[in-house]
Amino acid sequence: MCNSPENNALGLSPIILFVLLVVGSGIITQDFNTMPILVAFTLSTAYALMLNRKDKTLSFTDKVELFCKGGGDKTIILLAMIFLLAGAFYAVTIDIGARDATVNWALQYVPTDWLLPGLFIITSFIAFAMGTSMGTISAITPIGIGLANSLGVPVPLAVGIVVGGAMFGDNLSFVSDTTIAATQTQGVKLRDKFKANLLIVLPAALVTVVILMFVEINGAGIVTPEDYDFWLITPYLIIIVCALLGLNVITVLGVGISAACVVGISKGIFTFPTMLHSIQKGMGWMQDMVAIALMIGGIVALMQAYGGLQWLVAVIKRHVKSRKGAEAGSAALVSFLDVATANNTIAIVTSGPIAKDFSHQYDVDPRRTASILDIFSCGFQGLVPYGGQLLAAASLAGVSPFSLTPYCWYPMLILIFGMLAIATGLPKFKTDTSHIKS
User: Fold this and answer.
1) What b/e readout covers 183-198, taking b as 16+ CB neighbours within 10 angstroms?
2) Does a structural domain hold residue 189?
3) What pLDDT does 4 receive?
4) Any transmembrane segments, and where (predicted)?
């Protein structure tokens, strides 16, 4: 019904309309909350359904079917499940006092100047172990919010730190879907991509830590051991252990919710009915995010069916003329696709074969190509306000996702260091074939 559509720039316009609606209304009213994101996506969906292919007319029924298939993609459904479980975990841990207990523990045992850098480092470590930025953001954002309230720093700042740490760990993790996608599409080994990636992103992480050490803190009151109950912290400790064991993100969140419920009931904080209501309340907080995820999946499917994504690929391919151009072209392609689809894994999988052709044609080391794909997709994914990561974090924090982007310093820095790597040709690798997967 929709194979090989003709390239069509207009096919990308639904996502452009969404950005114009949200950003435009925010600029006009000086308030980025003026246009609700769900409403903006609804209007963009309606507009997308009015478009069509250049070479073939699709019926309205065909377009609705494409939209529904896109919204029902396994990646989108997994994202929706993570949203719901994250909301439940957040609500239950707040209701039993786990977040406040964890923050009070940190204020007592971690030096004040290291609380914000420590939040970034711990989040990075958990994301590296868990292999998912979404699961990490869901688990650690409540702690970041609690720290922000205690230290007198803006909540978006603390949440931006969590997002940055999650993207750092996810970008390097051996079990991350983005890492697997990047290595599989370029035919390189995981460890070689890790080494290449680390040399580019580690400086960005170190700069982030240094910047966070100079953030002015207004609060940081002194607490005593009586101010918290260590047992309330155990749900967070348990999910960290589960992450280190390499469990699936759904399993990690499920175990975390169960642990929080057991603690709540054993401490007399919950009755069984109030526990169930707490879980339902948290899931209710995330219902808008689930609807947005479904709409994003549907819009992306329509943009692809109309030839919008194919047009983007063709435009970038025409401008690649050299080795450095091939690297820049791969970076630009995966970046634009991530902005268009709001999904870094989809962006890598879609751009991977084209980037591999660039590598072969212009003699680019595939380890560098795999690193570039992962770095630029993760960088933009940590900045796009309508991406799953910022939507989840913003929903948990009760703020606009647009308020988080200015504080996502690490994603900005990895894009800068990624561009420097392309411009300088560093790091360089010995020419051999041992990195290629058999």
Assistant:
1) bebbbbbbebbbebbe
2) yes
3) 74
4) 9-28, 34-51, 76-94, 114-131, 196-215, 236-269, 289-314, 375-397, 409-429
Q: Which two tokens stand for residue 150?
A: 């205690």
pTM of the model: 0.77
Q: Which two tokens stand for residue 272?
A: 């069984």
* pLDDT range class, residue 223, cuts 50, 70, 90: very low
| Structural domains in the chain (count) | 1
Distances from the Cα of 159 to the Cα of 145, 149, 153, 238, 284, angstroms: 7, 12, 11, 22, 21
Pairwise CA distance, residues 407 & 217, whole Å = 15
Among 80-89, 95-104, 361-370, name the one with the lowest average pLDDT. 95-104
> Strand pairing partners for 436?
188
- What is the spatial distance between Cα 285 and Cα 281, in angstroms, rounded to a whole number? 6
Cis peptide before 427 (omega within 30 of 0): yes
* Residue 188 in domain: yes
Residue with tokens 């630009």: 332
Whole-angstrom CA distances from 206 to 169, 203, 417 are: 13, 5, 12
User: How many percent of the chain have pLDDT more than 90?
Assistant: 35
Q: For residue 409, give Cα distances in angstroms to 130, 337, 379.
A: 22, 21, 10
Distance of CA 84 to the CA centre of its chain: 16
Residue 27 to residues 35, 159, 204, 383, 413, Cα–Cα distance (Å) = 11, 23, 31, 18, 26
CA dist list (Å): 138 to 91, 178, 393: 11, 18, 7
Report if residue 240 sits inside a domain.
yes
213: domain range? 75-287
